Amino acid sequence: MQSRNELKKRAESAIKKSAAYGEDFDLDTLGIASTEIATSENLQDLDTETKKKLLNVGVVPSGEGRVGSFLMLDNAISHKSLYDSSLELMSTHEAMEKYYWLKDYSWKLVAVDTDKYTATSYLENANGYFIRAPAGQKAKLPVQTCLLLGSRNVSQTVHNIIIVEEGAELDVITGCATKNGIEKAMHLGISEMYVKKGATLNFTMIHNWAEQVGVRPRTVVHLEEGATFISNYISLKPVRSIQSYPTVKLEGRGAVTRLSTIAVAHPGSELDLGSRAVFNAPDTRAELISRTITTGGKIIARGEMIGNAINAKGHLECRGLVLSNEGMQRAIPILEANVEDIELTHEAAVGKIARDQVEYLMARGLSEDEAVGMIVRGFLDFGMRGIPEELKDDIDKTISQIGMKAM
Amino acid sequence: MLEINNLSVEVGGKRILTNINLRVEMGYTHVLFGPNGAGKSALLMTIMGFSGYNAVEGEIIFKGEDITHMPVNERAKLGIGVMTQRPPNMTGIKLGEFVKLVSKKNINPEELAKPLDMIRFLDRDINVGFSGGEIKRSELLQLAAQKPDLYLLDEPESGVDLVSIEQIGSTIKKLLFGDATCAGERRKKGKSALIITHTGQILDYVEADKGYVLSNGMMLCTGNPRELLNQIKSKGYKGCIRCNREMS
Residue A401 burial by CB count (10 A; 0-12/13-18/19+): exposed, middle or buried? Predict the structure, then answer.
């Protein structure tokens, strides 16, 4: 058991440690976001602009179609409501106080000294959401959480913990956004997720940051026997830099995961997005899929599968579209097998839209714009399940804008 | 309907069609014969306006309008529809949705797909994993939704099993002739078509009015399609080439 002092020491030693990937941000130039912000009893009381921001990241202010809502504004817990008493939703700080055992989960998957971003989050005693689905509980609707940046020149530090107990099922939608007028800010987000025996976690995350925001999520997921973790990650709007490499550890026999990413790099954006599956138990399965588009920004799509147990099976697919001469796409698939009887495969392709595809559609009467829009939409639509209805319009709009820009 | 005058075409800087003249009147079906590599497909691709097929001389007139350098979609809007030999895989685009879009939401894709036995393909990505016959039927389904006035069909019967040939042949007949019961009505109401055929099997379903023989990028001969087909069957294209030489 590592003591607090030990963790503190390790964090302090990593406070200047650059991350393995992505632009190196100097956190000293930014303050730490405030924890003193008025709470909102009702998300519908928020101003119209903020409500729109929430909706565009799949967070419904009325709470309709959701069993719970949680809003973190800067570093303050601004709202929390729960309609399903069988679930638990509170701030990580509250949960740490309430449950002594939670120390066995907190900072156990993500190492505090991973880099300066984890170190800062630890040393700043980052707060966030704690969601727990008790054994056997199957939530019918998703819990929605929103991490909103509302101040400029600050770092938002977040620490989330999700626990899905044995045989339970939980859907979580997390929307991350920036209020208007935030020129420069950082989001540091630690997420530790535990999916226990036979349980399922569907996790959908939508990012909608701003041009000058740097984003450094650090996510590790632990799957027990027969557990399932499905993740959808969507980032279609301009942002300065996102670097993330969520890792799923398949620790129990027969655990299954599928991580899907769709992302667009606009001019000035740098996205370094990866996903990693570590097969530590037999008969585990993973599918890592990414579809990325550049309209002038830089995208690195990483994927890594490490096979340490027999009869594991994984497929990695990175496909990238280049819609501008200014942009860059790099796909880096890594497969590693450390035992025999394992099957890991990958498929990677980057390039522009094929002319013959555009003309094929045009030959049936579609304009060039319509044809490109349709191809782009088809490229991004590969059967992600669980995308909130509220998001679809905004996604469609963004895709048609991307299609127009491509011409 | 379609008038091609002295058309020469280059692909990648190489001349592949020379001085082509051809005319398809309203309600008429013409067929194009020729050995592999003669330039038949290139002619259809050029009429449709696909990039890479550069008309360097001559003109293509459709419904009185010079379309020689018109974008593909404008030609489609004017009423030209094509079935190509090897259409690209359209990952992520569902056949049913596309058919609906092409018809401007005027039709029920299932109704249209039923006679072509394509209902189960409506939810599939267009051409992805389709067999030869399925591609042809999918193309016809799209054409049925598009309802062009001039059909450009590139070997509708090639790579297709016998059952599919029956479906394809009768669908083409229906698309071209509609309910017309006689030749006169066909002229008034029917659609026009330019069909490439290797085997002539399509002639068992569709009454063609005129045939052309294309070889080495040049039009060798025109005449009654069945007569031409019989000639080709008995003497091969070499016979056509020889005959053409003797005539000139």
Answer: middle
Interface test with B, best of A364, A366, A372 (most B CBs within 10 A): A364
* Interface pTM, i.e. ipTM: 0.94
Instruction: Verify whether the Cβ–Cβ distance B90 to A357 is below 8 Å.
Output: yes
Q: Specify whether A325 is located in the same domain as A367.
A: no
Q: Is the pLDDT of residue A393 over 80?
A: no
Report d(CA A374, CA B73) in Å as an integer.
15
Query: Could you say which of A356, A367, A381 has the minimum Cβ distance to residue B88?
Result: A356
Chain A: give the shortest CA distance to residue B145, in Å.
9
DSSP 3-state assignment of A27? helix
CB contact, 8 Å: B72 with chain A?
Answer: yes
B207-212 long-range contacts, CB within 8 A, separation 24+: B207/B29, B207/B177, B207/B183, B208/B29, B208/B30, B208/B31, B209/B28, B209/B29, B209/B30, B210/B28, B210/B30, B210/B31, B211/B30, B211/B31, B211/B32, B211/B33, B212/B22, B212/B30, B212/B31, B212/B32, B212/B33
User: Residue A388 in contact with residue A58, Cβ under 8 Å?
Assistant: yes
Judged by a CB distance cut-off of 8 A, whether residue B168 touches chain A is no
Choose the final residue of a domain: A306, A331, A352: A352
Does A30 share its domain with A142?
A: yes
The closest CB to that of B73, out of A356, A368, A382, belongs to A368
Same domain, A304 and A377: no
- A217 and A263 together in one domain: no
Residue of B nearest to A378 (CA): B92
Residues in chain B with pLDDT values less than 50: none
* Domain final residue pick, A211, A236, A261: A236
For the stretch A257-297, pLDDT in tens is 999 999 999 999 999 999 999 999 999 999 999 999 999 99
CATH 3.30.365.10 fits B2-247, yes or no: no
Q: What is the mean pLDDT of residues A44-51?
A: 92
Contact A359 B72 (CB under 8 A): yes
Q: Do B50 and A359 touch (CB under 8 A)?
A: yes
A135 and A80 in a single domain? The answer is yes
Chain B residues inside the 8 Å CB shell of A359: 50-51, 72
Query: What is the rounded CA–CA span in Å between residue A323 and residue A318?
Result: 16
The span from the CA of A316 to the CA of A302, in Å, is: 10
Residue range A39-54: mean pLDDT, rounded: 90
Facing A364 at nearest CB: one of B51, B76, B125: B76
Pair A387, A342 in one domain: no
Model confidence at A398, pLDDT cuts 50, 70, 90, reads: confident
User: Are A249 and A197 within one domain?
Assistant: no
Range of the domain at A66: 1-224+231-236
**Chain A environment of B82 (Cβ under 8 Å):** 363
Determine contact: B48 vs chain A, CB below 8 A.
Answer: yes
Q: For chains A and B, what is the number of CB pairs under 8 angstroms?
A: 62
* CB atoms inside a 10 Å sphere around CB B183: 12
Test B76 with A375 for CB contact under 8 angstroms.
Answer: no
Longest dimension (CA), chain A: 69
Residue A406 scores a pLDDT above 60? no
Residues A103 and A50 in one domain: yes
The per-residue pLDDT for A386 is 67
Question: Count of domains in chain A?
Answer: 3
